[in-house]
Specification:
The chain is mostly helical. It is built from ten helices and three strands, in the order H-H-H-H-H-E-E-H-H-H-H-H-E. Strands 2-1-3 form a three-stranded mixed β-sheet. Helix 3 packs across helix 6 and helix 9 runs antiparallel to helix 10. The radius of gyration is 22 Å and the shape is globular.
């Protein structure tokens, strides 16, 4: 269940503690405080380190080449619309079922949308930003997790492009966040370590250790500029790079804070 940032312990807006121990007293203070925990979103990544560039070059030489990938056909948008779920609505408050009334019309709108993104300067995407509590609700900004809610249209639009892209390049992209894919270094290292522990366990080794892991969401700490650099270096089609730039940069976010 999605909940907006809501005063848990008082009936006023002063429900979050600031670093000095005082509590917030306005919408602006709450917004500034919770966004401060994600300050890295707004940091300039600067120049990419040379060792990362070298690593990317080596990766590109070993990884399979991109297949020719044209823009999604109308059928891809239609299918994504038909199978769309009924999750919570986003910024536009339009239910998914509205788009399913005439999925072919929605498909034509999405095809036109991508054409505009590629050819003209389009308005940036907009989304609602809500905050959901962690397992233990607290009075500090760190106790809340941000959740972006794009428009229903943009969600189906993104799902269609994602499904089409992964289905056309199954050897280099996976339709889910696969842990064991080749050439995904952190996951490869994780697999190697876990296999060593398992082998030790099978041999009844006196080694007694526990592997604790906490895999962070990639989108929280990987700067979008690096994602664009990787797509470009790997020879991704220009339309996909352009769409990715549109999705990540200049997004307008409207925070939802209840009190």
């Amino acid at each position: 269940r999605i909940r907006a940032l809501f005063p848990k312990f008082t009936g006023s807006l002063g429900s979050l503690k600031k670093p000095d121990g005082s509590v917030t007293s306005s919408l602006v203070e709450i917004d500034n405080l919770v966004r401060s925990t994600r300050a890295f979103w707004e940091e300039d990544p600067g120049e990419i380190d040379q060792h990362l560039i070298n690593g990317l070059k080596e990766y590109s030489e070993q990884a399979p080449a991109w297949r020719v990938l044209h823009r999604p056909p109308l059928e891809a948008y239609t299918q994504a619309t038909i199978v769309s779920g009924n999750s919570a609505v986003g910024f536009d408050t339009i239910p998914f079922a509205v788009h399913r009334i005439d999925p072919d019309k929605t498909a034509r709108m999405m095809d036109q949308k991508l054409f505009e993104i590629l050819t003209i300067e389009t308005p940036p995407p907009r989304q609602l930003l809500v905050w959901i509590p962690k397992a233990t609700v607290g009075m500090h900004a760190e106790d809340w997790i941000p959740l972006g809610m794009p428009t229903t249209f943009d969600r189906i639009f993104a799902a269609a492009i994602y499904k089409w892209t992964t289905s056309q390049n199954p050897d280099i992209l996976h339709s889910s966040q696969a842990l064991l894919n080749e050439l995904r270094e952190p996951q490869v290292n994780f697999k190697a370590i876990s296999e060593k522990f398992q082998a030790s366990w099978n041999k009844k080794s006196p080694l007694t250790s526990v592997l604790f892991t906490d895999l962070q969401k990639a989108f929280e700490y990987v700067h979008p500029a690096w994602i664009i650099a990787v797509l470009t270096a790997r020879g991704a089609p220009r339309w996909l790079v352009k769409y990715t730039q549109y999705t990540f940069f200049q997004k307008q976010v409207v925070p939802k804070i209840q009190g």
